[in-house]
Amino acid sequence: MSGSALLEIRGLSAGLQGRRSITQVVSGVNLDVHGGEILGVVGESGCGKSTLAAAIMRLLVLPQVLQSGTMTMRLEDGKTVELMELPDNELRHLRWRHLSYIPQGSMNSLNPVLRVERQMTDTLIQHGLSKKEALDRSIAALELVNLDTKVLQSYPHELSGGMRQRVIIASAVSMRPALIVADELTTALDVVTQRQILQELAAIRDELGATIILITHDMGVVAQIADRVAVMYAGKIAELGTVNDIFEDPQHPYARGLIGSIPRESGQRVEGLQGEAPSPWNYPTGCRFHPRCPEVFERCNQHTPTLQQRAMDRWVACHLYDAETEFDG
Amino acid sequence: MGDLLLVENLLQIFGGRERTYAVDNVSFSMPDEPTIISLVGESGSGKSTIARIILGLLRPTAGRVLYDGTDILTQDRGWNRKFRSEVQAVFQDPYSVYNPVYKAERVLKLVIRKFGLAKNKSEARALMHEALRAVDLRPEEVLGRHPHQLSGGQRQRLMLARVYLIRPKLIIADEPVSMIDAGMRASFLNILQDFRDAQGISTLFITHDLSTAMYLGGEIIVLYQGRIMERGQTRRVMNDPLHPYAQLLISSIPTPDPRKRWKEELSSNRLQEFDPNANPGRERCLFAERCPQVMDRCWDARPILRNPDDEDLHDRGREVACYLYQ
Q1: Which of A145, A220, B65, B275 could in theory staple to A166 by disulfide, Cβ–Cβ 3.0 to 4.6 A?
Q2: C-alpha distances in Å from residue A183, one per residue of A109, B116, B177, B195, B300
Q3: A301 to chain B, minimum CA–CA distance in Å?
Q4: 3-class SS at B281?
């Protein structure tokens, strides 16, 4: 992988702390996030995509624990920081200024008894801005999400779901962070609002030059705005590639199944994926997809495939392509 | 005559001083032959309220629902029993319908016992296997398990296995796939189509997700703030929506194809969205303030749902409540 990535994740593992042992949920994820891209992370529920998002922010709370790995982030001044080793107080300084997180369902986490203005400026004042600066920044951020500044004087219950989600986004981008991690940003919204917000998000990327990791289960959403897509299955990345490649020529059998099971036109019957995704307590040996895989062969249940580069910007973790890779090497 | 379900001038008003019109004069029917009709709309469009009224869970402010020619609010006990077995509901949350203490298959056993479907244990077992296979579940992965050991998709299909045993005439499905993973959605929808084609079971499919409605086919009814804006054959409406609201809704679907991305930026007319107190009453087109093609008359009276004047637009059952076509 190239050395120019904004964020370089290597061998990232995270799990659930039990009484005696840790159950691994995310297993050895390697991922380069390029500056200025929108990277979609997709997968079924329970595949570990939300855990990955929180792990990148180092915001896992017990029983979730980070186990191992490195996450190297390049800052504007060219210096790099190792997120895994950063002490908490320095990390706090970094969050919001350099990396922002929009957790799932955060539009319902606004404080109901405080006006929007107070909630937006408090964070900024915490980061050392004066009251005046904080207000100016908030107003500028609301502009980015097409909200009138009147909302500053509103209480959350006076706003629609779409407006509350926009307040959250505005707040997350108010310090102009380089990286934004958004988990199921538009899941609870109707399609029209979803479209507006996703388009605003793309505009924010263009305007601020920010990088966005978008966690979603909705293949339509990634098809519309992502540049690259990482398909996760059972805690690992199964395939990574440009959005066009993933949708037009998925190579991992799981990615093929996922793309193939999308309902499209009426009258064109598609079959869903067979079987169920495994839970972290009984991940299969070898390739974790092998019990459901239509192309399974003997190698799959013993050897764990690693994410291998197959082409420019195309990575697949599947034994089907082992031979080719070996020839290449 | 000949309608399985007839919904007539349904009106549902909630609240005291500040009245909320959840359902505002909605009429539609489902024919006697097996059909799938999708009722689509955003949250607050009244679609779930309509489902609750049809199921008899809510008494409407005005209007009535006829099932097989009889008002569902009749007091006849025998008829009520028949209605409850012929009309079955599948709800959004595939977890809340199960009692977590019992094994999941209890939902099947209760039905078999209640309706006396089997003479003995082995017959009951065979029946359960048949029902599970009809909904693409392998008996060994479901039987003997508790609800929390099944995935959302399995729990929801188990509800369809229950429906399969009862063989109703009509399924009222309220957002049944919104909590199921994408990979499983298609197979759930396939089962509803199989039920229609092989078992003669109709479905009223309530959803906010237009892509599932499109996949299901059949007919579609587009609701907005409690009123029907447009209806017709799903394929026709999706490919060529007439009402500006339906056009907005359908163009906003995130198509799962990166070569078919949204083109223009959608303006979100800030001020209008902000001011919920600007209430010019309901005797008008409710979409007027968001409509890009609004005319003076849109504010004066409510448009009636009817065939478009232009004969070229006359498809079977296509109706639209918009002055652009009247």
Answers
A1: A145
A2: 14, 48, 20, 36, 44
A3: 20
A4: coil
Helix (H) or strand (E) holding B36: strand B36-40
Instruction: Find chain B residues with C-beta within 8 A of A220's C-beta.
Output: 211, 253-256
Task: Using the predicted structure, report yes or no on whether residue B311 has a pLDDT greater than 80.
Answer: no
CA distance B297 to B311: 22
| Spatial contact of B98 and B147, defined as CB atoms under 8 Å apart | yes
ipTM of the complex: 0.83
Task: Report the C-alpha gap between B152 and B188 in whole angstroms.
Answer: 11
For the purposes of burial, counting CB atoms within 10 Å of the CB of B125, is it exposed (0-12), middle (13-18) or buried (19 or more)?
middle
Contact A272 B253 (CB under 8 A): no
How would you class B121 by CB atoms within 10 Å of its CB: exposed for 0-12, middle for 13-18, buried for 19 or more? Answer: exposed
Retrieve residue A301's tokens.
Answer: 């249940």
User: Could you tell me the strand order of the sheet in which B62-67 lies?
Assistant: B20-31, B3-14, B62-67, B70-71
Laid out side by side, the sheet with A211-216 consists of A99-102, A179-183, A211-216, A38-42, A228-233, A236-242, A314-316, A308-311
CB B284 within 8 A of CB B224: no
Global pTM value: 0.88
Instruction: Find the closest chain A residue to B262 by CA distance.
Output: A224
Range 65-124 of B in CB contact (< 8 A) with A: none
A218 and B183 in contact by Cβ < 8 A? no
Q: What's the token pair of residue B148?
A: 């929390």
Q: Do residues A252 and A236 lie in contact, with contact meaning Cβ atoms separated by under 8 Å?
A: no
What percentage of chain A reaches a pLDDT higher than 70?
96
Digit-coded pLDDT (tens) for A93-150: 888 889 999 998 888 889 999 999 999 999 899 888 999 999 999 999 999 998 999 9
Give Cα separations from B1 to A5, B31, B66, B69, B160 (angstroms).
68, 9, 11, 7, 29
Indicate the burial class of A323 (C-beta count within 10 angstroms; 0-12, 13-18, 19 or more). Answer: exposed
What is the rounded CA–CA span in Å between residue B193 and residue B36? 8
DSSP bridge pairs for A73: A7, A81
Using DSSP bridges, classify how beta strands B87-90 and B3-14 pair: parallel, antiparallel or unpaired: unpaired
